[in-house]
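dude i think i finally got it to work??
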Amino acid sequence: MRSIDLKARARQLKSDIPIVFLALKDRETPFLAKCFAGAAIVYALSPIDLIPDFIPVLGYLDDLILLPGLIAIAIKLIPDEVMTRCRNESQVRGIGPKKWYYALPVVAVWILVFVAVFKICWR
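look at this
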């Protein structure tokens, strides 16, 4: 029965990501909630992990704990009326992970890292 609760909670957190993103842009969202929401979104979009995925077990453990934890904390800090408004907006607009240009900052960072490594190795 506990695994069913975890699966339902995981599905709920997955559907809450667009809502947290909308709350991040809302003026009524407290600063601390915006910090946790921003950290969750940046970590979700970033190809750089705290613990690299090629390390057995530990590599995926940070994704399973850190990302849902950041989202859960952000949701707890967002006022109920803001969450309700963002949830309704998300359903009306059909917001999801469809906008490719949100990945541009991550790609830019990777290009800068690649250029820096190339310059260091080329010397």
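The helical segments are 2-25, 31-45, 58-77, 80-93, 104-122.
im so relieved honestly
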